[in-house]
Design a protein that fits this description.
With about 290 residues, the chain is mainly alpha-helical. It folds into two domains: about 60 residues; about 220 residues, MetI-like fold (Orthogonal Bundle). The protein contains ten helices and two strands, in the order αββααααααααα. A hairpin with a 2-residue loop joins strand 1 and strand 2. The chain starts with 11 loop residues before the first helix and ends with a helix.
Length: about 290
């Protein structure tokens, strides 16, 4: 096979090799920059953790004539009561899972109501979103736990917490789901109508599956935020979740600093774990979309 020479006297194959080499060099530079960045991030993390460890080391010293006093923790208390505090982690997770499940159901109905052509449905959904977003979550929790008994409705702390968190986050998730539904192209709805699907079938089989995929990242962020907001349920005094346990042993032993630090560490660990799970779910959904395309 003959190779056609270009006007400069180089073959077309040589020009292709030169472009390929340039692309490889650019890719190598990009990888080197990414490696340097990742190394810098890891070093920064190590420095931050060392500073944090020094802050709670209990060391009292003088550096360049400046007295340095760090925080001394009662490690005996931490070793003794950490198992008691950690038992609240599972209740915290269960509370968050139940509440986020309720919130997603309410969000779907709320979003459909906000998009409905029916005036009562639209008004009801809009009123729900406005009322819940316009009042504090803690007030809603107290309403379910303290106000409803005056009407003869007595709820456990766990039930009141699930309802308050689910209804509150349902109002915020309504707008997320509504935006996801509106992002589905009109052409797909028209195509579904053309093949004889009803509006309810279009919503169930075409719109909602795609909308829920688009709403996974923001709903995941809402779930992680709810994991931390479950700490408000401790104010009822009847749900032995993570913060309640930390407050109980901290006050009883006058070691609130150590107890709250232990609770903070476990909240942080839970958040990191579920953030990693969310990243994997988002990556799988994105990979599936690329495969379909």
């Amino acid at each position: 096979m003959s190779i056609t020479a270009d006007p400069s006297g180089h073959s077309g194959q040589t020009e292709t090799d030169r472009l390929r080499n340039q692309a490889e060099q650019l890719a190598q530079r990009r990888r080197r920059r990414e490696r340097r960045f990742n190394i810098g991030v890891r070093i920064s993390y190590i420095v931050l953790f060392l500073l944090l460890a020094f802050l709670f080391s209990g060391i009292n010293t003088t550096i360049l004539g400046i007295p340095i006093r760090t925080i001394r923790l009662d490690w005996g208390f931490i070793r003794t009561y950490t198992p008691f505090i950690i038992r609240g982690v599972w209740l915290t997770i269960v509370l968050a899972v139940l509440a986020i499940s309720l919130s997603i159901v309410l969000a779907i109905f709320g979003a459909l109501g906000r998009l409905s052509k029916s005036p009562p449905a639209y008004a009801l959904a809009t009123f729900y979103v406005s009322l819940i977003r316009g009042t504090p979550l803690l007030l809603q929790l107290f309403f379910f736990f303290l106000a409803l008994p005056q009407l003869g409705i007595v709820l456990t702390g766990m039930t009141a917490g699930v309802l308050a968190l689910g209804i509150n986050y349902g109002a915020y998730n309504t707008e997320i789901v509504r935006a996801g539904i509106q992002s589905v192209g009109v052409g797909q709805r028209e195509a579904a109508l053309a093949i004889g699907m009803t509006n309810s079938q279009i919503m169930r089989r075409v719109v909602l599956p795609q909308a829920l995929k688009l709403t996974i990242p923001p709903l995941g962020n809402q779930f992680i935020a709810m994991l931390k907001d479950t700490s408000l349920v401790a104010t009822t005094g009847f749900v032995w979740e993570l913060l309640w346990r930390a407050q109980k042993v901290g006050r009883a032993n006058f070691r609130s600093l150590e107890a709250l630090l232990v609770a903070a560490v476990f909240y942080w660990i839970i958040t990191i774990i579920f953030s990693a799970v969310q990243d994997r779910i988002e990556a799988r959904v994105a990979r599936g979309e690329r495969t379909l395309s």
